[in-house]
Amino acid sequence: AAFDLVWHRADLILQDSDSVLILGKDEGSALDRLKRIETRLQALGYYTYIVKEQPDKLGEGVIQKAMRYALSSKFVLVENTEASGHLYEVPHVTKAAECVTVVLQEKGKGATWMFEDAYAKHRHWHRLTYRDDELEQRVEEAARWAEAFIHDFAQYQLANLPWLRKAVP
Fold first, then answer.
1. Cβ(131)–Cβ(102) under 8 Å?
2. Among 158, 51, 145, 52, which Cα is nearest to 100's?
3. Residues forming beta bridges with residue 129, ordered by sequence position
4. Alpha carbon distance 60, 45 (integer Å)
């Protein structure tokens, strides 16, 4: 009975997740930028994860850890101004797992051009550029975009997937 109760609670948490995974360079001033993003998302009511700050599990690889947090989050926010491990994580999290993703990067900067064509090919991720003095405003815009995308996609599913129409009262 205890197991069933814990399982049910965990399932509800994942079903209505209000968490956001934040990826990007996590050292020096770049970590300060991730912290600014985190603070703004928390002020908006989200629970945030910066992968580096989460405990490691023996036997779990870096990608597995990023995927675990990405798949339990409502959306992923990637700060893409400087190159870092997120360049390895994004193909797994955003492309393979199809997590709703917003990419933020400073105007005139960027870690890579390799994602550029994906913004046109994939509707579930979106890029916003910002100046340093408007980062928090762009984080709010990113959250609004992600919430709107998730809502619109859910409406599409309800209209087009018969097994989901049956599941909704």
1. no
2. 145
3. 105
4. 29
Contacts by 126-133 with C-beta closer than 8 Å and gap 24+?
126/101, 126/102, 127/80, 127/102, 127/103, 128/102, 128/103, 128/104, 129/104, 129/105, 130/104, 130/105, 130/106, 131/106, 131/107, 132/106
Measure the CA–CA gap between 129 and 84, rounded to whole angstroms. 18
pLDDT band at 38 (very low <50, low <70, confident <90, very high): very high
pLDDT per residue as tens digits for the range 115-163: 888 888 999 999 999 999 999 999 999 999 999 999 999 999 999 999 8
> Whole-prediction pTM value?
0.87
